[in-house]
Amino acid sequence: LDQKMSSKSPFMGLAVLAGTAAAAIVLKKVLGSVFKGAGSIQGYRGQILHFLEDPHAAKDVDKTYEFIQDGILVVKDGKVVCCGEAAKVLKEYRGLSVTDHSQYIMCPGFVDCHIHFPQVDMIGAYGEQLLEWLQKYTFPTEEKFKDKAYASKVADVFLDEMLRSGTTSALVFATVHKASTDALFEAATRRNMLIIGGKVMMDRAPFAPPNLFQEAKECHADCKELIDKWHGKGRNLYAVTPRFAITATSEQLALCGELMKEYEGKGIYMHTHLNENKDEIDLAKELHDKDSYLDIYAHAGLLGPKSVFAHCVHMKDLDYNQMTSSKSVAAFCPTSNLFLGSGFFDIKTAWQKKLRFGLGTDVGAGTSFCHLQTLNEAYKVSQMQGVKLDALNAFYIATLGSAAALSLDHRIGNFKAGKEADFVCLDACSTPLMAHRTDKERCKDLLDKLFVLMTIGDDRAVAATYVAGKCAMSTERYKKRGAWF
User: Fold this and answer.
1) Which of 15, 129, 290, 328 has the smallest CB count inside 10 Å?
2) Considering only CA atoms, which of 173, 164, 162, 228 is closest in space to residue 200?
3) Is the dihedral of CA 138, 131, 303, 326 positive or negative?
4) What is the pTM of this model?
5) Distance CA 146, CA 123 (A)
6) Buried b (16+ CB within 10 A) or exposed e, 63-82
7) Are 379 and 454 in contact (CB under 8 A)?
8) What is the pLDDT of residues 339-359, one digit of tens each?
9) In what order do the strands lie in the sheet containing 462-467?
10) DSSP 298-316
């Protein structure tokens, strides 16, 4: 058998054994190897980059990531089988069907730790800081989402824009309307995206306007219904979502805490805002009669490993200590913080205090869906504070780091076997300027190329986005059809 299997024509050897039990066993083994590319197994060839651990915390940075210049990612049934050198993979998986992305850097899909889906309607709204901006632009926009048909239309635009920007997973604010949350999860289900979302909770007048106000107990009942309907269904996950302490009574926050306890075993999330704006902080402390903004949430039992607090700009040592001891998470939203004039997230102290944090676009105060542009601003914010955010740390934060911040690193964030195969193909030559800058004469190594991508790159650099191993968006499809689904 060994001689026949090693001959130039293994099928001739099998023919000799035809009709015997041994032939059936060998045939299954050989054809299984030769045709591993058949059916649901698919290979994707490109310049593979993914992270194995946090480079900032590592003694040997080179061991924290893997870069394969000519690699193949093998996917079966939406999950990673393996990734490795192309020559080795092709030898092991003879006959593998391979999609060629060799001109692109293939990395895990970007993960957005804080974003508002209705605010796609008012991104780029001029001239205000946080509290005035909410009253003038945000609340009037969100009132429209009581209409399910309208909410569904915008949800499609929102998720398509995320995919066009290379983002495959996100933690998302809906509005106070159940219809908006249903619309978000329905649209995410059609795309098979991993989305954590929740109905916004607002019950404190006059800060919650009449058309967005809902009594705490009624809202609590709606949330229970939505959790039971959507959490853990497909790739959907639910987040209890009090907007922020200013629009929430103590009763509502206490009910949020009850929801977190009731569904603790099912792994639901809590998602809100914290220490974004100085006027916001002062008003929140006054309304709830607390010494710190974070204490308001702590008193309601809302701190924990799946509690995500957007912004965390104006932080004191006590805030850092409470968050780290409870393993709570901050969302770093640089484009939003700059746009609203809120301040700078202190990444140096976050690292020193070992605060869990991930990257958020915070659309619509954030000005781009694309994590490349978000990293661009993160670099500048860090520079203003004397910190150099290098490309390795930046791309880690945008992928595995943000997945870990959302307690999803067991499912997404890198290309380890068994992970869900969400990935993006990045084109470092997507514009004439980028092609010029990343030419071999000017671009010295991988880190240089990644830094160029994160500073002058944008959504145009996203050549294709894959969700669970299937192409959800590509520039070619977009050009030809003007749509992705």
Assistant:
1) 15
2) 173
3) positive
4) 0.91
5) 20
6) ebbbebeebbbbbeebbbbb
7) yes
8) 999 999 999 999 999 999 999
9) 79-85, 65-76, 41-51, 98-108, 423-426, 462-467, 470-474
10) HHTT--STTEEEEE--S--
